[in-house]
Amino acid sequence: MSEKKQIKEYVYIDSLEVNSILAQFEDGIPSVIEEIRQSTETNTEGTTGKVSSDVTGGVDAGLKGEAKIGSEFGTTNNESNSEMYQEAISTVYHDYAINIMTNKLDGAKLLKTTTKQPEGAYVQLTSNFELIDPVSIGSNLDSDTVSFMLNFDSNNSSDVEDAQKGFEAMIKLSTILNKFFPDSLLITTNNALTIAEKSNFRMNEAQLKSLVLAKRKIKIIGKIESIVTDDILDEDQLTKNVEENPTLLMSLMPKFSFSILHVFGLIKKEDRLIKPIAIYFE
User: pTM for the full model?
Assistant: First the structure.
């Protein structure tokens, strides 16, 4: 009986960061290329045999028109295959690269599996999660649209008014989070907050919304950039520190953005703030 195969569903890859890490290992990138070469050679041999067999029977065209059509079709087909091949190679490269990068970091004892690590540590975490998309929170709804939706559920005007205030509060929260964390998704896990760049996801915004309902554990490979401390969480202390030392004004707003997250229960003291390299399910 063949061994059961687990397929990883990569939803996020920071290719620049992956290549940077691999480049710092002597045989990092060559290892990826060698694995791809071996894989594609095997696949190419199988494909070539099939194509040769298919083409042999149709080489002798009876009419010039048939030969011309066949030639044009073959050229177009080859161009399409070439584009698909290049796209496949790019995807294969990135997916192989994650495996090899993980093995290299693990072999060098640089990859940890818990969050209780210092700044700069590489971690591979498996955890339940919540996905916070600042754009989805507000959903671009205006007051009239919210009122229209709520009137379907209740004929009581006071209920609708209360619910509308709740929606308006969410829209304001969405606006605040978008300003503090533009073009990003926030992923809360056990004792950590991952700030992920939207452009690195392999899912569009509609597909990302489906992850809000997911019950699977998420796997995150990333780097701990900083640790949440008391001076970040206490708004009064933040303001007091700035009054005592005006040079701290430049760091006030970044720290305040995390203080806001604390107010909404998204982070707590000693949580790690993580820059992700790869995010996947398996």
Answer: 0.74
